[in-house]
Amino acid sequence: MLRPLSVPWVYSANVRPLATIDRILLTDPVAGSRTIGTELLLLAPLGVLLPLLAGRLDASALGSFTRTVFCGAAVSFGIECWQTQVPGRVFDVDTVILNAVGVAVAHLLVVPGTRSRLRRRRTTRHRVPRDLAPAPAATPVAAPPRPGSQDVLAVRAPAISYEVAAHLHRGM
Q1: Is the Cβ–Cβ distance between 88 and 24 less than 8 Å?
Q2: Most buried residue among 28, 102, 138, 172 by CB atoms closer than 10 A?
Q3: What is the pLDDT of residues 123-136, one digit of tens each?
C-alpha cells in the first residue's frame, strides 16, 4: 500500500520524519517554503471547526486541544493512506506532521480567545442594571376560599415599570 503504482518519476514512500522537509528545503528553499506553508494551511480550518462541533464553551483547554490535534492528525493520516491508490502519489509522514501542526496552530490562535469572548458574552447578556432590576418575585398569599370556587391560592404580581419591561425586552 505504501509503494507507488509503477511510476518511475516518483520518490519512494517516506516514513522517516522530517526527511522530505529537509530534502525540499535543500533543493529549492522558496518552493520548499511554499510547500510547507501549503501543508500547514491545508487542514488548519479543522483546528477551529472541530471544537465548534462539540459546542461546549466550558471544555477543558488542554482536552480540547488534544482532541482537536488528534482528530486532525487522524484525518491527515487517512487522506495520506487513501491517496496511495492514485498513481504517482505516495505516503509521506511529513505531510501528516505538517497538517497536524497546522491544526494545532489554528486551534491555539482562534479557539481559546473565541471561547472566552463567548463565555463573557453569555454571562453579560442577561445581566440587568441594578437601577432597572425588577421587583422581588411574586409570593403566594393564602386567601380564604370563596364558596363554590376552585381557587385556593391567590398570587400578588409585582409591579414592573415601563423602563424595566423595555430593558428586558431589548435584552432578549
Answers
A1: no
A2: 102
A3: 776 665 666 656 66
Q: Kindly report, residue by residue over 105-117, the tens digit of the pLDDT.
A: 999 999 999 998 9
3-state helix, strand, coil in the chain (%, to 5): 60, 5, 35
Report pTM: 0.66
Contacts 24+ apart (CB under 8 A), 12-21: 12/90, 13/84, 13/90, 13/91, 13/92, 14/90, 14/91, 14/92, 14/93, 14/94, 15/91, 15/93, 16/93, 17/93, 17/94, 17/97, 18/94, 18/97, 19/94, 20/92, 20/94, 20/95, 21/94, 21/98
* Nearest in space to 72 (alpha carbons), one of 18, 108, 33: 108
Per-domain boundaries in the chain: 19-125, 130-171
Q: How far is CA 96 from the centre of its chain?
A: 21
Sign of CA dihedral 31, 33, 36, 38: negative
Rounded to an integer, what distance in angstroms lies between the CA atom of residue 76 and that of residue 84? 13
